[in-house]
Inverse folding.
């Protein structure tokens, strides 16, 4: 594929007969190899150590704010298990004496060692009673 | 487009009266390319949603990155050797203009944007769409050149055997383009959740194999000719491994842009990068062949 016009154009290649590998090409290659090796290593570690353990969802209330529609309780759902939980239902119960107010939401996915934020809305002030927020069900993705 | 004007005007002078006509032909090609590359994303509803819920700073960054990317594509991928960087930058902005007009028209017809929506929502929806469209517009001039131009484009292609840096740049562009087409969809994260770590590793190996085979084993027309005596390992480490690392970084950037990294643990994040890296790897390999 020799092109007679080649000398007319800019020739970005090094002179023929010389090895065409510059030092920074090898630097790039080393960077790429380290990155890929690290990812493979981590996935192997994860596969051996944690994969298949059941999802374990922990709920942490982060903030409560008042809004026209009620008291918005923001929370984080953290999955400390080794598998992804899908369609995670989170139910909140606010108990004040004999009255019980419930609110529920569903999170699409909570991957392993990841967290998702969501909110529940109550008519009564959660500070005035006993609030319990917990997951009630999930499915495998 | 500036380069198109010159590409098709090879045998005439710049002052020739047909120059205006050539520019319009180039513009029409750019619109065709923008439509061809942009349509799959114009008809993806996640792209509309992300347009209004995505972080405006991240969208602005994506738009800013688009300018050097398109300029580079016009330079490396342009089939006519543009004289100056300014010509390439002009090409890039013409392509962005063409893609924006195309996106506005199509989204208006679809009813995805309308006068009753906030400017923030309209802007977000249109902005996201300009990326794929403008890549198509920049490439259209070379790819759709008529039969009469063929001799010219072949020669300039050979003259422009890309350097190592340009090869890496092409891989960034190819990965960005193909990964961006699927990055906003729910399926990317869903697939990564359904796969176990061993399947993830399998996909990683498969991506590397396909990337290497695409460029070096399958006898496509654009196969690089400039490493006749390089060993397999040398090519694999300098191009495929580096390319795949680039693909993974591009994937991570896109997932971050679309807020898919929020609250993700390391395993979940890596999985999503590997899944998104699969189309990205094919895009990167294809870019080296096609451009």
């Amino acid at each position: 594929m020799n092109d007679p016009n080649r000398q007319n154009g800019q020739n970005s290649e090094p002179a023929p007969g010389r090895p065409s590998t510059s030092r920074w090409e090898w630097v790039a290659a080393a960077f790429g190899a380290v990155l890929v090796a690290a990812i493979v290593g981590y996935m192997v570690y994860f596969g051996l150590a944690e994969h298949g353990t059941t999802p374990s969802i922990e709920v942490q209330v982060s903030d409560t704010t008042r809004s026209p529609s009620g008291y918005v309780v923001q929370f984080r759902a953290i999955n400390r298990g080794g598998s992804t939980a899908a369609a995670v239902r989170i139910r909140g119960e606010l108990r004040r004496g004999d009255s019980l107010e419930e609110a529920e939401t569903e999170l699409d996915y909570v991957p392993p060692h990841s967290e998702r934020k969501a909110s529940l809305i109550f008519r009564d002030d959660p500070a005035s009673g006993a609030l319990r927020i917990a997951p009630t069900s999930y499915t495998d993705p | 487009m500036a380069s198109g004007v010159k590409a098709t005007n090879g045998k005439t002078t710049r002052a020739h009266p047909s120059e205006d006509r050539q520019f319009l032909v180039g513009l029409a090609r750019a619109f065709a390319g923008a439509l061809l590359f942009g349509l799959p994303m114009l008809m993806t509803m996640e792209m509309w949603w992300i347009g209004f819920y995505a972080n405006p700073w991240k969208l602005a960054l994506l738009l800013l990155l688009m300018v050097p990317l398109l300029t580079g594509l016009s330079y490396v991928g342009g089939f006519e050797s543009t004289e100056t960087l300014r010509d390439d930058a002009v090409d890039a902005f013409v392509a962005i203009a063409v893609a924006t007009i195309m996106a506005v028209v199509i989204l208006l017809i679809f009813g995805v944007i309308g006068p009753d929506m906030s400017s923030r929502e309209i802007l977000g929806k249109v902005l996201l769409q300009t990326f794929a469209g403008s890549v198509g517009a920049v490439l259209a001039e070379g790819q759709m050149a008529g039969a009469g131009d063929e001799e010219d484009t072949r020669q300039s292609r050979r003259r422009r055997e890309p350097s190592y840096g340009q090869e890496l740049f092409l891989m960034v562009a190819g990965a960005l383009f193909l990964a961006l087409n699927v990055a906003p969809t729910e399926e990317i994260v869903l697939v990564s959740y359904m796969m176990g770590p061993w399947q993830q590793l399998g996909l990683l190996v498969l991506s590397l194999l396909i990337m290497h085979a695409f460029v070096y084993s399958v006898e496509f027309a654009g196969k690089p000719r400039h490493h006749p005596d390089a060993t397999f390992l040398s090519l694999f480490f300098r191009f495929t491994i580096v390319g795949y690392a680039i693909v993974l970084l591009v994937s991570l950037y896109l997932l971050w842009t679309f807020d898919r990294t929020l609250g993700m643990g390391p395993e979940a994040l890596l999985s999503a990068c590997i899944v998104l890296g699969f189309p990205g790897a094919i895009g990167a390999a294809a870019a080296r062949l096609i451009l």
